[in-house]
């Protein structure tokens, strides 16, 4: 198993798998999750699919990553560490990157109220299958014209 440091902000990016070759350009997915094991599993599944994966354990850390990195998809838990919130994170991210695809997840909610989420976002309740997460990322990034 690959070791991921999901709670460590110093190294949020994971290298691309060597099977992609040095000239491949992979889309970048930012996984924002405060549960370390859940973060590691999601990041590993997305990386194995060929995505470049960045991780953050709270919204503040995620905003720093969004400010300095190109991100093609934001996958965020709703209730995060240090009383930060994935809903607010997505709204702030969309003000800077209006077309950024957003996928929300939560173990404490079965759905989102209509006005809570950013437009054209997706909600995936926990627990989710990693294969479903990967398939959703593939569908979103293949159908999104400019990857925000």
TrEMBL record:
Occurrences of domain Response regulatory (ranges): 28-141
UniProt xrefs under PROSITE patterns: RESPONSE_REGULATORY
Name by which UniProt lists this protein: Response regulator
Keyword Phosphoprotein: yes
Pfam families for this protein: Response_reg (PF00072)
Superkingdom assignment: Bacteria
KW Kinase (keyword) present: no
SUPFAM superfamilies registered for this protein in UniProt: CheY-like
Keywords: Phosphoprotein
Modification 4-aspartylphosphate, positions: 77
Lineage: Bacteria, Pseudomonadati, Pseudomonadota, Alphaproteobacteria, Hyphomicrobiales
